[in-house]
Amino acid sequence: MSAPTPLVLLESVAMVFGQGETAVRALSDVTLAVGPGEVVGLRGPSGSGKSTLLNIIACIQEPSAGRLSLDGQTVWEGRYRVADLRRLRRERIGFIFQFHNLLPFLNARDNVALAMTLAGMGLEAARGRAMALLGELQVDRRALAMPARLSGGEAQRVAIARALANDPHIILADEPTAALDSERARVVMDLLRRVARERSSAVLVVTHDEKIFDRFDRMVSLRDGRIEADQRAGA
Amino acid sequence: MNLALADIRHGLGRFLLTCLGVGLLMGVALSMVGIYQGLVREALALTRSLDAGLWVVEAGTRGPFAEASRIPGDVREMVARLPGVAAAGSLTLRTAEADGPTGRLRVQVVGYEPGRPGGPALLTQGRGLGSARFEAVADARTGLTLGATLMFGTDRYRVVGLTRGMVASGGDPVVFVGLRDSQRMQFRLAPAAARRAEAAGAPPAGTDTVNAIVAQLYPGADAAALTEAVRRWKHLTALSGPEQEDLLTRSVVQRARIQLGMFTVVLLFVSGVIIALIIYTMTMDKRREIATLKLIGAPDSTIAGLVLQQAMLLGGLGYAAAVALVFSVRDHFPRAVELGVAEISVMAGVIAAICLLASLLSIRTALRVDAQQALGG
Ligand SMILES: Nc1ncnc2c1ncn2[C@@H]1O[C@H](COP(=O)(O)OP(=O)(O)OP(=O)(O)O)[C@@H](O)[C@H]1O
Ligand SMILES: [Mg+2]
User: Fold this and answer.
1) Which of A83, B38, B84, B370 qualifies as a FRET site for B102, CA 20 to 30 Å off?
2) Chain B touched by A95 (CB under 8 Å)
């Protein structure tokens, strides 16, 4: 079986924050490929470089060395090779942040709809789809609430709906289930798995949450910025 | 969905307060424009209302407003006989203090011959001067009403008519009296020294001296040729109507105009800086939201639009508040605050330009916000 082109490909990526004596090596020589339909877990102790890795894939942070390819296209090698990074982020990447980052002045539904209107969808259609997504995540009841009035778990699920809004090929999630009880955590993971299967998306999830470890196809472990283990489920 | 409006709605009270503050500032700037315009209009009010095609004054002077001018009263007949002149009237001008029903008034007394050019063009109440003596037509700014008495020295004048907006270049309201009354006043009110000189044999200052002759011309009359003709006469010179107006604006009110104009420019500059700072602060307060917008892939135009629309809305609402404010207080100003559609639209344009410029700095900063700023907790 020939492996399909990976959606996410990191080759010998390194990341150093700062310079000289205070330099912090957040990632060293990380090589990782995530194929379509794959749901990959990323674990490791605090400070091991998990968030940094996701930020590099999302083109939010520039790596110090190596190569990043998305969808078979070289995105970073020495410098960014894509002219419109924000368009890439808007159309191809769904990012669920460690802290939810909803816009405080839009209600839950419009926070989700905004992502779609930015990609060119009409407002009514966007709102309709936003409601459907919120329904799948069981937060449609709170659709018209402002973010400040949402609980941590509700806000996190709204952010997940926003990340999925534009059917991205690459879904990156930084501890998406940390604020959820085990049942809701499973709902979220099942939705991510379904999206991965149905749309052949690559899903990369940072987690400490042992309750959901069985939901991953693969588990990558980071330690001190290096990949320590990369195991397939059931292997 | 409009992000600028959504964000404003989210913090509506604060935004409206900011608009009010900006409005007060713009109100001051707008008042200055009105005061400037009012000054110019008032300086020319008397000349414009007299609407003379020709001013004949003492040779070597640029009277009667810019410089003192004294000419014999019989010049009027010579001027009236000039070809092209429809009518001519003698005019005296002096500032005087008078006692009205409510106290002392400082007024500009204009003496003219009823029936000849030189009188008030438009009465808002009452009638013009008749042949009776000691009658006066006063401007509403004096606070006098019809039938009120006005004391010039020991002479008692009765107000028979009222005008509006007739003031001297210094802002003193105009009181029209008959020429003979005004000449008597000139004589009676002359300083004691003049009276002593007269007693010592000098020719009487009062009797038939006037300050200027104003002439109305037939349509198509050649004002330039007439001025030339008068200048050839001994002891006399002439100015055309436009020349007189030009002279007034240049010499009499020029300094005040420049003063006010410069102050208005300074105020607009200060307003611009303050508006820029407010917009900048508003943008800085939204750094995290802007970073989030970048994270979800919003293009620069969305972010620039957010800042620009809020700046324009701030300017627009502030300006509306400023206009409302100025119009509600402008009648309480001692001198005219003149604001027409033209001034208000031009100011609106200036404010829009200021807001646009002010938001450029903020847009630049907003576009430089690092998407990573949204990642912290
Ligand atoms: N902007 C930065 N400047 C300097 N050092 C940084 C920066 N961001 C991260 N680091 C450092 O890089 C290392 C990896 O950080 P990272 O946030 O990727 O860890 P993490 O695995 O996500 O940890 P956690 O589980 O606590 O979220 C840490 O030592 C951190 O201090
Ligand atoms: Mg992290």
Assistant:
1) B38
2) yes
Which among A15, A17, A25 is the best mutation to test ligand 1's pocket, defined by most ligand atoms within 8 Å of the CB?
A17
Give the whole-angstrom CA distance, residue A200 versus residue B281: 45
Distance A50 CA to ligand 2 centre (A): 6
Task: Give the residue from B92, B34, B50 showing the smallest Cα distance to B245.
Answer: B50
Q: What is the mean pLDDT of chain B?
A: 85
Task: Evaluate whether ipTM surpasses 0.90.
Answer: no
Total structural domains within chain A: 1
Atom 1 of ligand 1, residue of closest alpha carbon: A17
B208-224 average pLDDT score: 85
Q: Report residue A112 as tokens.
A: 């989700």
Distance (Å, rounded) from C-alpha A42 to C-alpha A175?
9
The reply to whether A75 falls in a domain is no
Going from the Cα of A22 to the center of ligand 1, the distance in angstroms, rounded, reads 14
Q: Residue holding tokens 């604006």?
A: B249
Computed over every residue of chain A, the mean pLDDT equals 91
What CATH number is attached to the domain comprising A53?
3.40.50.300
CB B158: neighbour CB atoms within 10 A? 13
Query: Which ligand 1 atom is the nearest neighbour of the CA of A44?
Result: 21
Residue A45: which domain range? Answer: 35-60+86-232
Q: What is the pLDDT of residues B324-341, one digit of tens each?
A: 998 998 888 877 788 889
Is residue A188 scored above 90 in pLDDT? Answer: no
Which residues from chain A sit within 8 angstroms of residue B4, using beta carbons? none
Residue A195 domain-assigned? Answer: yes
Q: Which residues in A lie closer than 8 A to residue B9 (C-beta atoms)?
A: 105
pLDDT, tens digit, for every residue of A14-50? 999 988 888 999 999 999 999 999 999 999 999 999 9
Question: Rounded distance, CA B200 to CA B179, Å?
Answer: 26
The answer to whether residue A8 sits within a structural domain is no
CA B283 vs. chain centroid, Å, equals: 40
Contact list, A86 vs chain B (CB under 8 Å): 294, 297-300
Question: Is pLDDT above 90 for B165?
Answer: no
Token readout for A206 is 């940072």
Instruction: Provide the shortest C-alpha distance from residue B341 to chain A (in Å).
Output: 38
Partner B contacted by A179 (CB < 8 A): no
- Domain presence at residue A66: no
Tell whether the model's pLDDT for residue B205 goes beyond 80.
no
Winning range, highest mean pLDDT, from A143-157, B142-156, B196-210: A143-157
